């Protein structure tokens, strides 16, 4: 059974989410401020399968919680909740490593659909198998396992977040072609192509750290000046 942490300081929302998620068969924990959430997320036991994270929180805000979670090496999927008209909030959340977002107020069905989508990556070994060649990709000394969001490197296994894997997939699918930042923002994050954000660049930095023998001199994820990025197998 999937275990979900709900981080929300408004009691009626937290309790409503708990009620509805439990009705779907999930186990639910609630953290009512950011400090409590960060403690829970950096202490891995028992492991969580998903975090639903409000941005406006007492103690630590949602960005700081996401940032600390990723800095501690925890790659649990994070769904952020942010108020409408706070586009910069949402972009900053994605820059800190959140996997998906929902604008408040949201419909319950929409939330449940996002939850199922983010949990699907955790069930990779139960679902139907694609052809081996579509699921894995060798890049120099590393192997990318798209089906389980992992990269095997000589130094060990790296777990990818949903968006890291989607970004890599988007570049690999158009191997050899220059893909613009706007196209990647739209395809991977569902943002408008003209959104002002460094999210693509910061995720490319992370992917290079995993894939490139020398991340300072990338050979596989190459910058195309004034345009975007190109994947070179
Ligand atoms: Ca709040």
Q: CATH superfamily of the largest domain, called what?
A: Response regulator
Structural class: alpha/beta
| Beta-strand percentage range | 15-25%
Q: What's the total count of β strands?
A: 12
C-alpha Rg, in Å? Answer: 18 Å
The low-confidence parts are 123-133
Task: List the SSEs and their pairings.
Blueprint: E1 3-7, H1 11-23, E2 27-31, H2 34-42, E3 50-54, H3 62-71, E4 78-83, H4 87-95, E5 100-104, H5 108-120, H6 132-135, E6 136-139, E7 142-145, E8 150-153, E9 156-159, H7 162-173, E10 178-180, H8 181-189, H9 199-211, E11 221-224, E12 228-231
Calcium ion is lined by residues 9-10, 54, 56-57.
Description:
- The protein is α/β, with parallel strands linked by helices and about 230 residues long.
- It folds into 2 domains: about 5-120, Rossmann fold (3-Layer(aba) Sandwich); about 130-230, Orthogonal Bundle (Arc Repressor Mutant, subunit A).
- The chain contains 9 helices and 12 strands.
- The protein has helices at about 10-25, 35-40, 60-70, 85-95, 110-120, 130-135, 160-175, 180-190, 200-210, and strands at about 5, 25-30, 50-55, 80-85, 100-105, 135-140, 140-145, 150-155, 155-160, 180, 220-225, 230.
- The protein has a 5-stranded parallel beta sheet with strand order 2-1-3-4-5, with helices on both faces. Strands 6-7-8-9 form a 4-stranded antiparallel beta sheet.
- Helix 4 links the parallel strand 4 (about 80-85) and strand 5.
- Helix 7 packs across helix 9 (about 200-210).
- The longest helix is centred in the N-terminal third of the chain and has 13 residues, at about 10-25.
- It is globular.
- About 35% of the residues are buried.
- The model is unreliable at about 125-135 (pLDDT under 50).
- The chain binds calcium ion (CA).
- The site of calcium ion (CA) has 5 residues, from loops.
